Amino acid sequence: MSRRRKGEPIDGWLCLDKPRDLGSTQAVSRARRAAGARKAGHAGTLDPLADGILPIAFGEATKTVSLLLDASKAYRFTIAWGEATATFDAEGPVTATSDVRPSPGAIAAALGGFVGEFDQIPPAFSAVRVDGVRAYDLAREGVAMELKPRRIVIHAARLVDAPSTDRAEFEIECGKGTYVRALARDLAERLGTVGHVVALRRTRVGPFGEDRATGLERFEQMCHEGRILEALLPVETALDDIPELAVTAEDAFRLTQGRSVVLLPRQVELLNARLPASRRVSARSEGRMVALCEMRAGRLNPTRVFHHS
Q1: Are residues 77 and 183 located together in one domain of the fold?
Q2: Which of 84, 162, 172, 221 would be 194's cystine partner, CB 3.0–4.6 Å?
Q3: What is the pLDDT of residues 132-186, one digit of tens each?
Q4: Looking at 11, 17, 21, 47, which residue is catalytic?
C-alpha cells in the first residue's frame, strides 16, 4: 500500500512580500506550513537582508516555476558611499574606505552607462556555483576564487533620491542573474569611490508585483482563519505572456494524457500571429488551464500537464 502524502493538495501562487532577515527557503517553509500544503517552491531567491516580492508556488503551480526564471525583475535600493564591504552589503566587514562623495549629477550620468547588456562579475557571497559548491560557502571559509563574468541586461535605471551626500536611492528593471550588490560595487568604482547596499527591496518578478503582494504574517493569519483562497493567485499567473487557446473537453483529456492534438487551420493561423519564439501555448478547457504546450507542424504537443485539485 502506498504511503499517503502529507498536506493538502493546494494549487496556486502566493505573491509573498518577504520580510527582512528571513531566507527564501525559510519563507517557503513558513508559508507551506501555514497553508498545510503538500508541495511548495519559490521562483527566485531573495537575500535574507532584502525584502519584497518572493513568488511562492503551491501544488500544480510548481510546474510553472521554471517559466519565471527568465522573467524580468525590479528593485529599489540604497547605496551608502564611502565604505566597501566584503559582501557588498551591510552584513560584511568593511574592506575599503573613501572620502569621495559623488554628486547627484555625476551619479545619474554614470548610472546611464549601466543600462543595456554588459558583463557583470557576481559577488563572492552569492549562490553562483564554483565546481559544484556555492560561492558563498567558499567565501565564508576564506577560499579565494575568481568568478567568471556573466552577461546580464538592465532595461532601465534611475536615481530616485540623494537624501544626503552619503546615500543615494535607486530603482532598476533588469533581467535574470543581475546582482544589485555587484551593480553598487561597479557604480561606485566608476564614480571614483566605494560603496555598499544598505537597503534592498524587490518590487516585481514578472507578473508578480507589490499590488498583488501579501505579507507573511498576514498570510499566516488568513490561513488560520480559513481564508487562504483570498491570498492565492491562479496557477496560470506565471503564464501571463503566453497565448491561450481554448480546447474541447475531448482534446483537453488527450493533452492531460500526454498526447498531442491536431489544430484546425484557423487555430494555427491565429496562434502563428501571436506566438513567441518559444512556440508555447497555454491550453484551456472550461475556464481552467489543462496543459502547457508547444505548437509544431499544426499540432499541440503537451510539455506540462495540470491536474487541478
Answers
A1: yes
A2: 84
A3: 767 666 667 666 667 789 999 999 999 999 999 999 999 999 999 999 999 999 9
A4: 47
In a domain, 5, yes or no: no
- Record the pTM: 0.87
Q: Say if 54 falls within a structural domain.
A: yes
Write the CATH number for 270.
2.30.130.10
Radius of gyration of the chain from its Cα atoms, rounded to whole angstroms: 22
One domain, residues 108 and 166: yes
Residue 269 bridge partners (DSSP): none
Question: Rounded CA gap, 11 and 9, in Å?
Answer: 7
Smallest CA-to-CA distance from 11 within 77, 59, 82, 48 is with: 59
The whole-angstrom separation of Cα 305 and Cα 63 is 8
Residue 6 lies in a domain: no
Which phi and psi angles does 85 have, rounded to 5°? Answer: -125, 165
Which residues are CB-contacts of 238 (< 8 A; sequence separation ≥ 6)? 13, 43, 55, 57, 61, 64, 65, 67, 68, 206, 207
Cα angle 279, 282, 284; round to 5: 150
Domain range for 82 = 73-205
Whether residue 200 sits in one domain with residue 130: yes
Mention every residue, 6+ apart, whose C-beta is less than 8 A from residue 5.
38
